[in-house]
Amino acid sequence: MSLKRLFLQFSKSLGLFELARTMQRRGLRIVCYHGFAIDDEALFRPKLFVLRSTFEKRLLFLASKRFPILSFAEALEKLSAGTLPAGATVITIDDGFYSTLRYAVPLLRRFSFPATVYVTTYYCVRNNPIFRLAIQYMFWKTLDSQLDLKGLPVPHSGIVELVDHNIRDRIMWEIVEHGEKQLGEAQRCELAQALSRKLHVDYEAIVRSRALTLMNTAELRELVTLGIDMQLHTHRHRLPEHTEIIRQELNDNRAVLEPIAGRSLQHLCYPSGIWSQEIWPSLAAAGVVSATTCDPGLNLPDTPRLALKRFLDGENISQIEFESEISGFNDVLRTIRTFSRLLTSTRN
């Protein structure tokens, strides 16, 4: 066990988690998930994918400790009115992976917990594995020590030594960037299939499992029918600081989601958590009321609604770390660290 986890276990045994929960009772906790492992994705990307058993354990903890789980809309309304119940928590899920419908939603319904799913829609309407994830996964999965680039529609040729991780990562990202910038969707699928044969990884098995695939539009309708809130996450998972592109991304995202939701969508999740205040006027002009980041911490009445904080949970987070964040103990530690840095800089 790491020193951090030992420290958290010791702090919990002293009752500091419960004390922090009392101190931080008026803050809004927003928890973020992404995908739920169908196969070995939690080993491949533990920050992105979580095991179903881990998610179940998190929900059981929230239920047993009686944290009020609110819908996103209700939480924002009560946050503004100053009427949040103590320990109020919101569950959000990014991207819209198929595994959300298959694994997460049944567990949420079992606990009667509301949730918001932020959906990026390019791959929803194409229903292929996400290209960059599929390429990364195959490079991670292969047992081969070499890759012969001959015959692949990429800028380079020759044999690459995969045992050198720097070379391996460089070639992998060059393939991803070439595919995303130079090829159409059908060509990207052909490249992924050709690469899978070179790496001796079964791409068709990836397609069949839907491990790296988003929900299609029919499945999104099922999601809504099951009472899950669906919100914006851009169309192509990008939000650069350019007003016209921002408008295009949100319009394209809404064009897919709003007919399914049957209402206008006003809440956004920043792709990859990348945000800046410079784009807030563009978001406001586009009718975006709130936007969630990947910055940790509790949300208070004065937290900007276009910079809402969230805790990113994943298979890389231990149960004690999860409990520390949810109790508010981590927020106390962050406040102490900030005060300590300010004190040090003042003295200097």
Q: Which key features would you list for this structure?
A:
single chain; globular; TIM Barrel; alpha/beta; 348 residues; five-stranded parallel beta sheet
CATH architecture of the largest domain: Alpha-Beta Barrel
Secondary structure: number of strands: 11
* CATH class designation of the largest domain: Alpha Beta
The CATH topology of the largest domain comes to TIM Barrel
Helicity range of the residues? 40-55%
Structural class by secondary-structure content: alpha/beta
The CATH superfamily of the largest domain is known as Glycoside hydrolase/deacetylase
Termini gap: 36 Å
Total of domains? 2
Radius of gyration: 22 Å
Strand content: 5-15%
Mean pLDDT: 95
Unreliable spans: none
What shape does the CA trace take?
globular
Q: SSE order in H/E notation?
A: HHEEHEHHEHEHHEEHHHHEHEHEEHH
Strands of the biggest beta sheet: in what spatial order? 8-5-4-1-11
- What is the number of helical segments per DSSP (H or I, 4+ residues)? 16
Q: Main beta sheet: strand number and arrangement?
A: 5 strands, parallel
